[in-house]
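Morning. Coffee machine broken again, so started the prediction first thing and wrote up yesterday's gels while waiting. Chain of 227 residues, entered below exactly as on the submission form.
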Amino acid sequence: MAGLLRSRVVVAVLAALFGMTAMLVVDAGAHGKGHANHSGVVYSGCFHHGRITKVRIRDTKPERCETIETDSVAGHARYVTWSASGPEGPAGLDGDAHFTPFYVALDPADGETDSKVVLQHGPFTVRVRCRNNIGGEDAAELVVRGSEDEWYAPGSPPLPAGFVVVGGDETEPDGTDKFDNDIDDFVVASASGHVLGWDGESTAFGLNVFGHGCIVAGNIWTTTGTP
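Came back before lunch.
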């Protein structure tokens, strides 16, 4: 019963964070002892084919996720962590993933652009960027800048240090009220082994809504491996 209640708490936390359908499917059979740190409660689970199972409040010595089957597709499940308070969880084992939820609202003046850093991971900096009546258009964007040479975005050639890629956006004529998601997923990878991305269908882009010029909200996953 304790595990079932804990799972329901996690679902409620995810739903409250995004104000929309929870992005992750959670198994009701979660279990494990609780642990909280100065950054807030850190949760852990096993990620496999879009599902997180075995959700628990992170243990100090988490066990590895064994091979599981989901929808008749077998494969190794990754151990992942995320925090309800926003910051990345502590560094995990090589190849483990972390999730960082975010919600950013910006209000640039007419004819101007504003931005805010959401996350930094290795050579990558992710920003929400808002354009108000630039060339007759408003835009809410999620952009990535790489500080190393030879990094990649989907379908790109090797990119140089300082290059910026728009990973998702909503662009409309100036003054348009719009709230939507971006159907395309996004991922970038560096030669140093840093990788990050997000699920476009679960990333919200708002223009001229809730009293703000731009709103972008979602969940970014990060992982680091050895090239």
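The first helix runs from residue 2 to 18. Going to sketch it on the whiteboard this afternoon.
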